[in-house]
């Protein structure tokens, strides 16, 4: 169920579910990522990511709401052992996976926005599955996505007069990186949990984008992120180190196209391939 953000209290100090990212308790292990999110992902991992339908099968609504109410009423519990502080029967695997999605969905400013990826949509993103994309089309989409992520990263690293927005952007980038890496760990076990990148993207796109609009297109973008995140991040890092030239555009597309061809060829022999 998609939660309407207008109905969520975002002004209460120290609010966890429904509070701004940059006002959350920060994880020491993952700077810029809320500790609540890190603890929930750890707790889920301890219970096993091989659970069939993990993230697709929701937890009981009553248990989830009880957990959310408990954490929001006792925000200091996040700084300790969250799993030990709550009743074991409440914090089961289904409740944890639902809580992760709900935390992201309730953020006043979503981790991803349609505006940030307008260039990907302009590139001709349609409702085809990622597995049905031709190498050339995949290369075009990845290049557009890399450009969008690059702009998102540059905005996060820039110094803005609006300190709150500046900090919020940094947290959004760090949280996106953390959650996509986690989803790749889940997808790596798809032979057992039956959660492919596509299945995970359908579950997480509404939460990451914070709205149901262009649901299929949003989920395809998330699917591509899950499949190609290491390459996208490595490409961003190498792009920052390389001096621009008049041939940069051609060289970039040739590089992406070569990667796309190699990926599609390997996937033909390994359908469950992740980069």
TrEMBL record:
GO cellular component labels: cytoplasm
Organism: Schistocephalus solidus
Alphabetical keyword list: GTPase activation
Keyword tRNA processing: no
CDD domains per UniProt: RhoGAP
Domain Rho-GAP: 19-233
GO process annotations (BP): signal transduction
GO molecular function: GTPase activator activity
Gene3D superfamilies to which the protein is assigned, alphabetical: Rho GTPase activation protein (1.10.555.10)
InterPro entries registered for this protein in UniProt: Rho-GAP (IPR050729), Rho_GTPase_activation_prot (IPR008936), RhoGAP_dom (IPR000198)
PANTHER family referenced in this protein's UniProt entry, alphabetically: RHO GTPASE-ACTIVATING PROTEIN GACC-RELATED, RHO/RAC/CDC GTPASE-ACTIVATING PROTEIN
Gene: RHG23
Coiled coil: none
Name the UniProt record assigns to this protein: Rho GTPase-activating protein 23
Matching Pfam families: RhoGAP
């Amino acid at each position: 169920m998609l939660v309407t953000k207008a109905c969520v209290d975002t002004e209460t100090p120290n609010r966890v579910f429904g509070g701004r990212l940059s006002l959350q308790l920060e994880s020491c292990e993952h700077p810029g990522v809320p500790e609540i999110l890190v603890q929930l992902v750890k707790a889920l991992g301890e219970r096993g990511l091989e659970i069939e339908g993990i993230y697709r099968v929701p937890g009981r609504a009553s248990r989830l709401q009880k957990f959310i109410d408990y954490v929001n009423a006792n925000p200091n519990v996040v700084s300790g052992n969250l799993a030990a502080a709550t009743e074991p029967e409440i914090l089961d695997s289904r409740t944890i996976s639902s809580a992760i999605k709900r935390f992201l969905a309730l953020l006043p400013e979503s981790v991803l926005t349609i505006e940030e990826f307008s260039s990907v949509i302009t590139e001709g993103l349609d409702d085809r599955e990622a597995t049905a994309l031709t190498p050339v089309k995949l290369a075009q989409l990845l290049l557009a996505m890399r450009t969008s992520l690059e702009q998102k990263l540059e905005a996060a690293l820039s110094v803005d007069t609006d300190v709150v927005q500046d900090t919020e952007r940094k947290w959004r980038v760090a949280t996106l990186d953390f959650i996509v890496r986690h989803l790749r760990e889940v997808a790596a076990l798809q032979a057992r949990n039956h959660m492919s990148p596509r299945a995970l993207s359908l579950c997480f796109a509404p939460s990451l984008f914070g709205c149901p609009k262009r649901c299929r297109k949003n989920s395809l973008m998330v699917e591509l992120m899950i499949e190609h995140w290491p390459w996208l991040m490595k490409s961003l890092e190498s792009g920052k180190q390389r001096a621009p030239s008049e041939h940069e555009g051609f060289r970039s597309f040739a590089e992406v196209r070569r990667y796309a061809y190699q990926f599609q060829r390997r996937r033909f022999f390994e359908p469950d391939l992740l980069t």
